[in-house]
Amino acid sequence: MTAPLVPLPAVVQTADAAGFHLVPTTTVSGPGDARAALAEVVRRRTGITLTTASDADIVLDIEPGGAPESYRLRVDAASVSIVGADAAGLFYGMQTLAQLITHDTGDWSIPAARIDDAPRFGYRGVMLDVARHFQPVATVFAFIDRAASLKFNMLHLHLTDDQGWRLQMDSRPLLTERASSTSVGGDAGGFYTKADYRAIVEYAAERHMTVVPEVDLPGHTHAVGVAYPDIAEPPVMTDEIRDAIAQFGGEDPRAAVPYEGLAVGFSSLRIRDERTYEFVADVLGELAALTPGPYLHIGGDEALGTAAGDYADFMERATQIVDALGKTPLTWHEAGAVDDLHDATVGQYWGFVSPTDGMDERARRFVRNGSRVILSPADAVYLDMKPTADADLGLTWANGPTSVERAYRWEPTAVIDGIGEDDILGIEAALWTETIRDLADLDRMAFPRIAAAAEASWSPRDGADRTWTCFRERVGGLAPLWHSLGIGFDESAEIPWQKGRP
After folding, report:
1. Burial class, 29, CB count within 10 angstroms (exposed 0-12 / middle 13-18 / buried 19+)
2. Cross-strand pairs, 155
3. Residue 206 a catalytic site member
4. From its phi and psi, is residue 293 left (phi > 0), alpha (psi between -120 and 50) or beta?
5. Do 272 and 310 contact (CB within 8 A), yes or no?
6. Confidence tier at 500 by pLDDT (50, 70, 90)
7. What span, in angstroms and rounded, lies between the C-alpha atoms of 439 and 487?
8. CA–CA gap between residue 284 and residue 288 (Å, rounded)
9. Do 11-117 and 123-459 fold alike per CATH?
10. pLDDT at 215 > cutoff 80
11. Pairwise CA distance, residues 291 & 299, whole Å
């Protein structure tokens, strides 16, 4: 059977020879944080507690000089060795090792193998929307663990939207006092204190993930108007918004009243009011001070309530504010329509695998400006899309349900004409939470499709095993590991799930 390795490593050589047996006396050596991380995953997978020894059975090491985040893994009957080019590479080698652990005839073992591996893209992201339905810190921690196990290295937190503002701001305390208590459908809201946010950043960093926070501007800002109505325009109602309300329920948005519906595009800030830019500078300045990573995401999508000229003026100024804070601006692809966007701005494309409505031209604008793009095609890597037509969670606006096969069968360099490998910063799988309330929902919607996004992000595009047929078998072999890690994945009928001891 094909080894259950996802994402597929660059080079895998298996041998018809005895593998390594994990037993209660197995020992490990290496950097302390790496030892602890490996011991935890082995304990959860097998119940065996690894002990530390200088002359160990499993040796973890770092040897600088290789490609960033790369590693090599060697397994034979006598020993296991993982050598990373850096701490992240060592961590990812341990995730691969965890996937190799098997249980057969009463023994835990690791098959003999030689693996040399490095990522295709440097930015491998997952996005978690905590605005439509607030997710507590413990859930964010669990999501980080799950994503890191698949070698994702960026956590994009969508912190603000029409339904709520989710981060404490000392400069603007009313944001959480007045605009954080609700979620979609009237569910309870919530927010992160600064201490909570720092804890998330630290937890992610320990797992080699960088937090990319998003404050969505100038649309998706109804919650801002609940807290500070003097800088928000009244809701702009259109037939599209009325249709969404008719389809999904809820009331019309009203100025300064918390919004609990699903319609988008009706909110905007007052673009010609200098108090708006004072607000933007205040909240982005606080966010930048809290965030050690290089990116600040300022949204820019679906600003249907903002005139085109006003939108352009706002995005020009907002990207300049981010740059002045020492961060790289990141926006959704709509901002590519703006002539004087800051040149360093990275665009995130959320259109379809086959672009429509000029979305590809807006994405190309970032590349022409000398920057790059992140690909998040909604009909492939939006994890909140229904996996099947009869699924009880999710939406279908992105070309209908997204099966696991469709999530897998796309090639990043084929999405937008004129945007090649070097123009792509990376891939990001997005999990919006209009219909998703808790960790169980997150698991069921993300897994197994998140594994397809991981492979698009990490694995070489070519190779005998880089196929849907092989991928579905490899994913199926991860069922025992995912069960042991407590991941409540959707047992999709598309995948031949491996049975047996978790």
Report:
1. middle
2. 126, 211
3. no
4. beta
5. yes
6. low
7. 9
8. 6
9. no
10. yes
11. 17
DSSP state of 232: B
pTM for this entry = 0.97
CB 396 within 8 A of CB 386: yes
Q: Which of 361, 359, 362, 293 is nearest to 326 (CA)?
A: 293
Position 282: which residue type?
D
Token pair recorded at residue 157:
């937190």
Residue at 500: amino acid letter: G
123-459 folds as TIM Barrel (3.20.20)
**In the numeric block, which tokens belong to residue 128?**
């978690």
Tell me the two tokens of residue 201.
Answer: 């950043």
Which listed CATH number (3.30.379.10, 3.20.20.80, 3.40.50.150, 3.20.20.70) goes with 11-117?
Answer: 3.30.379.10
Extract the tokens encoding 479: 């069922």
Backbone angles phi, psi at 437, to 5 degrees: -110, -30
For residue 294, is pLDDT > 60? yes
**Active-site residue (options: 302, 316, 361, 405):** 302
Asked whether the predicted pLDDT for residue 164 surpasses 70, the reply is: yes
Tokens of 79: 């020993």
Token output for 501: 């001891």
CA–CA separation, 317 and 406 (whole Å): 39
H or E, element range at 359: helix 359-368
CA–chain centroid gap for 67, Å, is 23
Residue extents of the structural domains in the chain? 11-117, 123-459
pLDDT(502) > 60: no
Quote the strand ranges of 407-475, DSSP E: 424-431
Let me know: does 294 contact 466? Beta carbons within 8 Å: no
Confidence band of 240 (pLDDT split at 50, 70, 90)? confident
Going by C-alpha positions, the residue among 133, 144, 134 that lies closest to residue 192 is 134
pLDDT per residue as tens digits for the range 45-88: 999 999 999 999 999 999 999 999 999 999 999 999 999 999 99
pLDDT attached to residue 127: 98
In angstroms, the CA 97 to CA 115 distance is 10
Q: What is the largest CA-CA distance in the chain?
A: 72
Q: Across-strand partners of 205?
A: none
On the 0-12 / 13-18 / 19+ scale of CB atoms within 10 A, 55 is exposed
